[in-house]
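User: Fold this; tokens only.

Assistant: Input:
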Amino acid sequence: MGSVIREGLGRAQDPAVLTALLDRAAAARTAEARGEAPETVAWIPDDAEDMLATGTRQFRETYEFYRTPRGYHPRAVQGWVLRSADQLAQYDSYAMIRLIAPRPLLMIVGSEAETAYFSREAIERAAEPKELFVIDGATHIDLYDRDEHVTAAVAKLTDFFGKHLAG
């Protein structure tokens, strides 16, 4: 998430977007210190046009999953507090990934996932035992609930962890 906040999906975001977001977060912190209610930002906008305007399949599929009965749940957190943008931007899921070893690491991605580069980079930085398993034809969201892709993922999980954690 940190990378997406800092650089956008695919690392194509204009740096001015992050600067503007950090400015908004600073203003929100000041407003809260003065007693105003925290401002929240939706992870997935109510308006589908906002998601579709990004031009990425990932955002379109995210909207179609979380804002429809397929993946929506009324108690799921729908947003984040704007003042935390700087903390989100600093977050690095894989900063210490090498420390997972010697525990086994399996990352599963869809061949069509616009987010797959995160897992590829994580595997490059991780120590053995590690493996990147690519499910042909799947997108990021497909791996949530599409039977043909989930079945392949579960089979790989069973094989990988059966091999590395047996005994």
